[in-house]
Design a protein that fits this description.
It contains eight helices and twelve strands. By secondary structure, it is α/β, with parallel strands linked by helices. The radius of gyration is 19 Å and the shape is globular.
């Protein structure tokens, strides 16, 4: 039989990685014909180049490990672009586009608001939510600090929705809110990593925080399971 192992690598990614590698190896020992990893959130992909001298490139290591233990990977909105994924993995990696779910949610709940992308990498998401999104120019200093620059015109009193693919430390969205001096703002993201006290801190600056359920979190309002099931049946 084909075996699909489901693992979203949170809240303990190191433990989860070993668990799923053991399970994949054991499935092969038990004569599985094919082993597919279903990872709604695929951890370790955020670092694709050496930023600090001497540090490891986690995405390269995880790509090698998973390629040796699985026949295919199915994930939701991976942090890296398609061409980057092809360089890291020697097996098929299927990235599920959930923009239709975000579009429907936005139309139902934020029909008349300004859509802002937290950084340039968020463009592919926000471009599907708005014809005229505002994309912020963000630079990351380290894991917990970013800076925003540029001049942006936000209509006074208008409700704002800031969009990003992941909320990790919350620093990107918090800095954007501070820089733009936003008052009536909501936050929308695909993955809710919420490291440390990120959620509680972001709540101080926003009305509402909405994420999908790729990572279990109290902010989950958009269910991606149906799209995952359909893609799994396809492959």
């Amino acid at each position: 039989k084909t075996v699909a192992l489901v693992q979203s690598f949170y809240p303990h990614p190191n433990h989860s990685l070993m668990e799923v590698l053991f399970a994949a190896s054991n499935a092969r020992d038990l004569n599985a014909s094919k082993v597919i990893l279903v990872a709604p959130y695929l951890a370790y992909l955020r670092e694709d180049k050496r930023v600090i001298k001497g540090e490891c490139v986690s995405s390269k290591i995880i790509g090698d490990l998973l390629s040796k233990n699985f026949d295919a990977i199915l994930t939701v909105e991976p942090h890296l672009h398609r061409d980057n994924l092809d360089k890291l993995f020697t097996i098929p990696v299927y990235g599920i586009d959930i923009s239709s779910l975000l579009v429907n949610y936005t139309k139902e709940n934020f029909r008349d608001c300004v859509i802002i992308g937290a950084d340039r990498e968020s463009y592919k998401l926000v471009n599907k939510l708005s014809l005229n999104p505002i994309i912020l120019d963000k630079k990351r200093k380290d894991s917990f600090n970013v800076s925003v620059s540029g001049s942006y015109k936000i209509p006074e009193g208008k409700e704002v929705l800031i969009v990003d693919d992941i909320i990790s430390t919350g620093s990107s969205m918090i800095e954007a809110i501070k820089f733009l001096k936003l008052k009536n703002v909501n936050c929308l993201a695909v993955h809710a990593a919420m490291i440390g006290g990120a959620l509680r801190e972001l709540e101080k600056y926003s009305n509402k925080i909405i994420t999908t359920n790729t990572i279990s979190n109290e902010t989950n309002e958009i269910d991606v399971s149906n799209l995952i099931a359909k893609k799994l049946l396809e492959i």
